[in-house]
Design a protein that fits this description.
Length: 158
């Protein structure tokens, strides 16, 4: 019977260094509006996530409210119900203004806006389930201890 060869190498194999180039730093000439928002120890990631969700919900509420208002005004029988589309539009404007404050590169003195969250939840009446989900998520996020500290710190600084 022939002798088996050893499968272990006689010399240690050294790993090759990876030749991945480092990403260039962003140009300093970009205006502050075009630079990504600061995410780090100053702003929890939940703030950015909540701001983006609130911004999207606001835009959808404006479109839904205008759609309801236009749809209702086109119907002569339901002409008196057309002002119902005003609520989602007004809520959408407030959502966008609040989201802009949350996404601002320099933290603005804001508090958790539970009124907007509750009105978002009530948007299920208009068929906007996304706004309803964003409102529930906002109330859950507002109860997070890290978020409470962030809002307290930002409000104290402003």
């Amino acid at each position: 019977m022939p002798a088996r060869k050893s499968l272990t190498p006689t010399q240690p194999v050294e790993p090759k260094p990876s030749a991945v180039p480092a990403a260039p730093p962003p140009p300093a000439s970009l205006p502050a509006v075009l630079q990504p928002p600061a995410v780090g120890p100053d702003r929890p990631g939940l703030v950015t996530a909540l701001a983006i969700l609130t911004l999207v919900s606001g835009m959808i509420n404006i479109m839904a409210g205008l759609g309801i208002a236009i749809g209702m005004t086109l119907s002569i029988v339901l002409l008196c119900i057309a002002p119902l589309g005003l609520l989602p539009v007004v809520l959408g404007v407030f959502e966008i203004l609040y989201a802009i404050k949350l996404l601002s590169p320099s933290p603005q003195p804001v508090r958790p806006n539970q009124t907007i969250a509750i009105l978002e939840i009530l948007c299920f009446v208009f068929g906007n389930l996304l706004a309803c989900a964003v409102g529930v998520l906002a109330l859950v996020v507002y109860s997070d201890p890290a978020m409470s500290l962030y809002f307290a710190r930002v409000h104290a600084e402003g």
